[in-house]
Amino acid sequence: MQHAYDMRKAAEAAAPVTLRDGATIQTWVKSGWGTPLVFLYGLGCSISHWKYQLAHAQAAGRLTVHMDYRGHGSSSLGTPLRPLTIKTLSQDLNEVLDQLSIESAVILGQSMGGTVALQFAHDHPKKCAGLVLQGAPGRNPFGPMRIGETGRAALKLMITLNKIAPVWVKFLNKTAGRAPALARELVRLKGFNPTLARNEDIEEYLKHFFATDPNIFYELADDLRDFDVSQFDDIIASPTLILAGAKDNMVPLEECRWLAKRLPMAELEVIAHGSHCPHLDDPLYVNHRIDRFLGTYKF
Fold it and tell me: In this structure, what CATH number is given to the domain that contains residue 140?
Protein backbone atom coordinates (compact mmCIF):
# COMPACT_ATOMS: atom_id res chain seq x y z
CA MET A 1 0.00 0.00 0.00
CA GLN A 2 1.11 3.55 -0.64
CA HIS A 3 1.59 6.17 2.08
CA ALA A 4 -1.64 7.91 1.15
CA TYR A 5 -4.74 8.88 3.04
CA ASP A 6 -7.39 11.37 2.04
CA MET A 7 -8.85 12.72 5.30
CA ARG A 8 -11.35 14.82 3.33
CA LYS A 9 -12.85 11.72 1.78
CA ALA A 10 -13.29 10.09 5.19
CA ALA A 11 -14.77 13.29 6.59
CA GLU A 12 -17.56 13.16 4.00
CA ALA A 13 -19.07 10.35 6.08
CA ALA A 14 -18.79 12.22 9.39
CA ALA A 15 -21.63 11.37 11.75
CA PRO A 16 -21.76 13.16 15.11
CA VAL A 17 -23.41 11.09 17.84
CA THR A 18 -25.02 12.78 20.85
CA LEU A 19 -24.74 10.75 24.05
CA ARG A 20 -27.27 10.63 26.87
CA ASP A 21 -25.35 13.18 28.94
CA GLY A 22 -25.21 15.64 26.05
CA ALA A 23 -21.65 15.02 24.89
CA THR A 24 -21.28 15.00 21.11
CA ILE A 25 -18.92 12.31 19.83
CA GLN A 26 -17.59 12.91 16.34
CA THR A 27 -17.51 9.66 14.38
CA TRP A 28 -16.54 8.76 10.85
CA VAL A 29 -18.38 5.85 9.27
CA LYS A 30 -17.51 4.28 5.93
CA SER A 31 -20.09 1.75 4.77
CA GLY A 32 -18.94 -1.60 3.46
CA TRP A 33 -18.90 -5.34 4.02
CA GLY A 34 -17.86 -7.56 6.90
CA THR A 35 -17.78 -7.18 10.65
CA PRO A 36 -17.37 -3.46 11.42
CA LEU A 37 -13.81 -2.40 12.22
CA VAL A 38 -13.65 0.24 14.96
CA PHE A 39 -10.37 2.13 15.31
CA LEU A 40 -9.28 3.69 18.63
CA TYR A 41 -6.20 5.87 18.94
CA GLY A 42 -3.77 6.39 21.80
CA LEU A 43 -3.47 9.04 24.49
CA GLY A 44 -2.71 12.40 22.90
CA CYS A 45 -3.14 11.05 19.36
CA SER A 46 -5.83 11.71 16.76
CA ILE A 47 -8.10 10.04 14.22
CA SER A 48 -5.25 10.20 11.69
CA HIS A 49 -3.03 7.86 13.73
CA TRP A 50 -4.58 4.77 12.08
CA LYS A 51 -4.73 6.49 8.70
CA TYR A 52 -2.86 3.87 6.66
CA GLN A 53 -4.90 1.03 8.10
CA LEU A 54 -8.14 2.94 7.55
CA ALA A 55 -7.19 3.66 3.94
CA HIS A 56 -6.32 0.00 3.40
CA ALA A 57 -9.56 -1.29 4.94
CA GLN A 58 -11.69 1.24 3.07
CA ALA A 59 -9.96 0.42 -0.22
CA ALA A 60 -10.94 -3.20 0.37
CA GLY A 61 -14.56 -2.11 0.89
CA ARG A 62 -14.65 -2.83 4.63
CA LEU A 63 -17.12 -1.16 6.98
CA THR A 64 -15.03 1.13 9.20
CA VAL A 65 -15.72 3.40 12.15
CA HIS A 66 -13.39 5.77 13.90
CA MET A 67 -14.12 8.50 16.38
CA ASP A 68 -12.75 11.22 18.61
CA TYR A 69 -12.96 10.43 22.30
CA ARG A 70 -14.96 12.65 24.62
CA GLY A 71 -13.06 15.91 25.10
CA HIS A 72 -10.70 15.14 22.21
CA GLY A 73 -10.51 16.54 18.70
CA SER A 74 -13.98 17.40 17.40
CA SER A 75 -15.88 15.75 20.28
CA SER A 76 -17.25 17.73 23.20
CA LEU A 77 -16.56 16.93 26.83
CA GLY A 78 -20.17 16.87 27.96
CA THR A 79 -20.86 16.65 31.69
CA PRO A 80 -19.32 13.37 32.84
CA LEU A 81 -18.12 12.81 36.37
CA ARG A 82 -14.53 13.99 36.51
CA PRO A 83 -11.82 12.90 36.27
CA LEU A 84 -12.24 11.26 32.89
CA THR A 85 -11.52 7.51 32.98
CA ILE A 86 -10.87 4.57 30.69
CA LYS A 87 -14.22 3.09 31.76
CA THR A 88 -16.02 6.28 30.71
CA LEU A 89 -14.46 6.01 27.24
CA SER A 90 -15.54 2.36 27.08
CA GLN A 91 -19.11 3.35 27.99
CA ASP A 92 -19.04 6.08 25.34
CA LEU A 93 -17.92 3.57 22.71
CA ASN A 94 -20.79 1.26 23.68
CA GLU A 95 -23.31 4.08 23.32
CA VAL A 96 -21.87 5.15 19.97
CA LEU A 97 -22.16 1.61 18.61
CA ASP A 98 -25.74 1.38 19.87
CA GLN A 99 -26.68 4.58 18.08
CA LEU A 100 -24.99 3.35 14.91
CA SER A 101 -26.95 0.07 15.21
CA ILE A 102 -23.73 -1.94 15.35
CA GLU A 103 -24.31 -5.12 17.36
CA SER A 104 -20.76 -6.47 17.22
CA ALA A 105 -17.41 -5.18 16.00
CA VAL A 106 -13.69 -5.84 15.86
CA ILE A 107 -12.02 -3.19 17.99
CA LEU A 108 -8.56 -2.05 16.95
CA GLY A 109 -6.75 -0.07 19.63
CA GLN A 110 -3.28 1.46 19.69
CA SER A 111 -1.61 2.27 23.02
CA MET A 112 -4.28 3.67 25.38
CA GLY A 113 -6.83 2.87 22.67
CA GLY A 114 -5.97 -0.78 23.27
CA THR A 115 -6.66 -0.32 26.97
CA VAL A 116 -10.06 1.18 26.14
CA ALA A 117 -10.66 -1.80 23.84
CA LEU A 118 -9.79 -4.23 26.65
CA GLN A 119 -12.16 -2.44 29.02
CA PHE A 120 -14.89 -2.54 26.36
CA ALA A 121 -14.31 -6.26 25.70
CA HIS A 122 -14.70 -6.93 29.41
CA ASP A 123 -17.75 -4.69 29.88
CA HIS A 124 -19.55 -5.72 26.67
CA PRO A 125 -18.22 -9.14 25.60
CA LYS A 126 -21.07 -9.87 23.18
CA LYS A 127 -20.32 -6.68 21.26
CA CYS A 128 -16.61 -7.42 20.91
CA ALA A 129 -16.16 -9.88 18.06
CA GLY A 130 -12.39 -9.53 18.17
CA LEU A 131 -9.50 -7.34 19.26
CA VAL A 132 -6.42 -5.99 17.53
CA LEU A 133 -4.12 -4.47 20.15
CA GLN A 134 -1.00 -2.58 19.23
CA GLY A 135 1.43 -1.45 21.92
CA ALA A 136 -1.48 -1.68 24.37
CA PRO A 137 -0.78 -1.60 28.12
CA GLY A 138 -2.70 -4.28 29.99
CA ARG A 139 -1.60 -2.77 33.30
CA ASN A 140 0.14 0.34 34.66
CA PRO A 141 2.51 1.24 31.82
CA PHE A 142 4.65 3.82 33.55
CA GLY A 143 6.97 1.52 35.48
CA PRO A 144 8.22 -0.46 32.46
CA MET A 145 8.46 2.59 30.18
CA ARG A 146 11.98 3.19 28.92
CA ILE A 147 11.93 6.91 29.64
CA GLY A 148 14.39 6.91 32.52
CA GLU A 149 13.91 7.83 36.15
CA THR A 150 13.81 11.53 35.31
CA GLY A 151 11.04 10.95 32.79
CA ARG A 152 9.02 8.88 35.24
CA ALA A 153 9.46 11.49 37.98
CA ALA A 154 8.35 14.26 35.61
CA LEU A 155 5.26 12.31 34.59
CA LYS A 156 4.33 11.62 38.21
CA LEU A 157 4.82 15.29 39.05
CA MET A 158 2.56 16.42 36.19
CA ILE A 159 -0.19 13.96 37.18
CA THR A 160 -0.06 15.25 40.76
CA LEU A 161 0.08 18.89 39.67
CA ASN A 162 -2.93 18.33 37.43
CA LYS A 163 -4.98 17.38 40.49
CA ILE A 164 -4.07 20.47 42.52
CA ALA A 165 -3.29 23.16 39.93
CA PRO A 166 -4.81 22.29 36.52
CA VAL A 167 -4.39 25.87 35.29
CA TRP A 168 -0.64 25.58 35.68
CA VAL A 169 -0.67 22.33 33.74
CA LYS A 170 -2.39 24.12 30.85
CA PHE A 171 0.24 26.85 30.96
CA LEU A 172 3.12 24.36 30.97
CA ASN A 173 1.56 22.43 28.10
CA LYS A 174 1.29 25.60 26.04
CA THR A 175 4.94 26.37 26.72
CA ALA A 176 5.99 22.82 25.85
CA GLY A 177 4.15 23.12 22.56
CA ARG A 178 6.95 25.42 21.47
CA ALA A 179 9.45 22.69 22.28
CA PRO A 180 12.85 23.00 20.58
CA ALA A 181 14.08 20.56 17.98
CA LEU A 182 15.90 18.52 20.65
CA ALA A 183 12.65 17.71 22.47
CA ARG A 184 10.94 16.77 19.23
CA GLU A 185 13.87 14.54 18.35
CA LEU A 186 13.45 12.77 21.68
CA VAL A 187 9.80 12.02 20.85
CA ARG A 188 10.85 10.73 17.44
CA LEU A 189 13.44 8.39 18.95
CA LYS A 190 11.28 7.12 21.83
CA GLY A 191 7.92 6.76 20.10
CA PHE A 192 8.83 5.75 16.55
CA ASN A 193 11.40 3.85 14.55
CA PRO A 194 13.25 6.91 13.20
CA THR A 195 14.64 5.00 10.23
CA LEU A 196 11.15 4.02 9.04
CA ALA A 197 8.50 6.47 10.24
CA ARG A 198 7.89 9.48 8.03
CA ASN A 199 8.70 12.90 9.46
CA GLU A 200 5.26 14.12 8.35
CA ASP A 201 3.59 11.49 10.52
CA ILE A 202 5.73 12.37 13.54
CA GLU A 203 5.03 16.08 13.15
CA GLU A 204 1.32 15.34 12.79
CA TYR A 205 1.46 13.38 16.06
CA LEU A 206 3.23 16.24 17.84
CA LYS A 207 0.64 18.73 16.59
CA HIS A 208 -2.25 16.73 17.99
CA PHE A 209 -0.38 15.82 21.17
CA PHE A 210 0.04 19.46 22.16
CA ALA A 211 -3.51 20.27 21.04
CA THR A 212 -4.96 17.71 23.46
CA ASP A 213 -6.43 19.20 26.62
CA PRO A 214 -3.59 18.54 29.12
CA ASN A 215 -5.99 18.22 32.05
CA ILE A 216 -7.78 15.39 30.27
CA PHE A 217 -4.46 13.88 29.22
CA TYR A 218 -3.17 13.63 32.78
CA GLU A 219 -6.54 12.49 34.14
CA LEU A 220 -6.44 9.52 31.76
CA ALA A 221 -2.75 8.94 32.45
CA ASP A 222 -3.56 8.77 36.15
CA ASP A 223 -6.37 6.29 35.51
CA LEU A 224 -4.02 4.12 33.43
CA ARG A 225 -1.89 3.63 36.53
CA ASP A 226 -4.75 1.71 38.18
CA PHE A 227 -5.66 -0.39 35.15
CA ASP A 228 -4.87 -4.11 35.37
CA VAL A 229 -6.52 -6.64 33.07
CA SER A 230 -5.54 -9.45 35.45
CA GLN A 231 -7.94 -7.97 38.02
CA PHE A 232 -10.99 -8.29 35.75
CA ASP A 233 -13.67 -10.52 37.21
CA ASP A 234 -14.26 -12.20 33.82
CA ILE A 235 -11.69 -13.42 31.30
CA ILE A 236 -11.68 -11.69 27.92
CA ALA A 237 -12.38 -14.52 25.48
CA SER A 238 -12.48 -12.55 22.21
CA PRO A 239 -10.04 -13.63 19.49
CA THR A 240 -7.15 -11.21 19.85
CA LEU A 241 -4.14 -10.18 17.79
CA ILE A 242 -1.43 -8.41 19.78
CA LEU A 243 1.06 -6.47 17.66
CA ALA A 244 4.21 -5.79 19.66
CA GLY A 245 7.14 -3.71 18.50
CA ALA A 246 10.41 -5.26 19.65
CA LYS A 247 11.80 -1.72 19.93
CA ASP A 248 8.80 -0.25 21.77
CA ASN A 249 9.99 2.11 24.52
CA MET A 250 6.51 3.00 25.79
CA VAL A 251 5.03 -0.49 26.22
CA PRO A 252 8.03 -2.82 26.06
CA LEU A 253 7.77 -6.28 24.52
CA GLU A 254 7.75 -8.02 27.90
CA GLU A 255 4.52 -6.17 28.76
CA CYS A 256 2.88 -7.42 25.57
CA ARG A 257 4.00 -10.96 26.42
CA TRP A 258 2.48 -10.52 29.89
CA LEU A 259 -0.82 -9.41 28.37
CA ALA A 260 -0.89 -12.25 25.83
CA LYS A 261 -0.63 -14.81 28.63
CA ARG A 262 -3.79 -13.41 30.23
CA LEU A 263 -5.96 -13.53 27.12
CA PRO A 264 -6.79 -17.16 26.23
CA MET A 265 -7.57 -16.38 22.58
CA ALA A 266 -4.57 -14.11 21.99
CA GLU A 267 -1.85 -14.49 19.40
CA LEU A 268 1.27 -12.37 19.74
CA GLU A 269 3.00 -10.99 16.68
CA VAL A 270 6.42 -9.50 17.42
CA ILE A 271 7.52 -6.94 14.86
CA ALA A 272 11.31 -6.97 15.08
CA HIS A 273 11.78 -3.49 13.64
CA GLY A 274 8.63 -2.02 15.22
CA SER A 275 8.43 0.80 17.75
CA HIS A 276 5.41 1.90 19.77
CA CYS A 277 3.86 2.82 16.42
CA PRO A 278 4.59 -0.07 14.02
CA HIS A 279 1.49 0.87 12.03
CA LEU A 280 3.31 4.07 11.07
CA ASP A 281 6.78 2.48 10.88
CA ASP A 282 5.72 -0.26 8.47
CA PRO A 283 2.06 0.10 7.45
CA LEU A 284 2.30 -2.51 4.70
CA TYR A 285 3.35 -5.26 7.12
CA VAL A 286 0.80 -4.28 9.76
CA ASN A 287 -1.98 -4.17 7.18
CA HIS A 288 -1.03 -7.65 5.97
CA ARG A 289 -0.96 -9.05 9.51
CA ILE A 290 -4.34 -7.56 10.38
CA ASP A 291 -5.82 -8.91 7.14
CA ARG A 292 -4.56 -12.39 8.02
CA PHE A 293 -6.14 -12.20 11.47
CA LEU A 294 -9.47 -10.98 10.09
CA GLY A 295 -9.44 -13.72 7.46
CA THR A 296 -8.67 -16.46 9.99
CA TYR A 297 -11.82 -15.67 11.94
CA LYS A 298 -13.87 -14.66 8.88
CA PHE A 299 -14.71 -11.24 10.31
Answer: 3.40.50.1820
Q: Specify whether the CB–CB gap between 136 and 110 falls below 8 A.
A: yes
Sign of CA dihedral 107, 117, 296, 102: negative
Domain assignment present for 1: no
Task: Tell me the CA distances in angstroms from 71 to 23, 81, 119, 177, 222, one per residue in order.
Answer: 9, 13, 19, 19, 16
Cα–Cα nearest to 141, from 66, 57, 43, 232: 43
pTM of the prediction? 0.91
- What confidence tens digit (pLDDT) does each residue in 158-177 have? 898 889 888 888 877 777 66
- Cα(201)–Cα(280) distance, integer angstroms: 7
The gap between the terminal CA atoms of the chain, to the nearest Å, is 21
Instruction: State how many domains the chain has.
Output: 1
> Residue 299, CB half-sphere, CA atoms under 13 Å: how many?
30
The runs of H, that is alpha helices, within 24-65 are 51-59
Specify the range with the lowest mean pLDDT, choosing from 110-114, 130-134, 207-211, 280-284: 207-211
- Give the three-state DSSP class for 268: strand
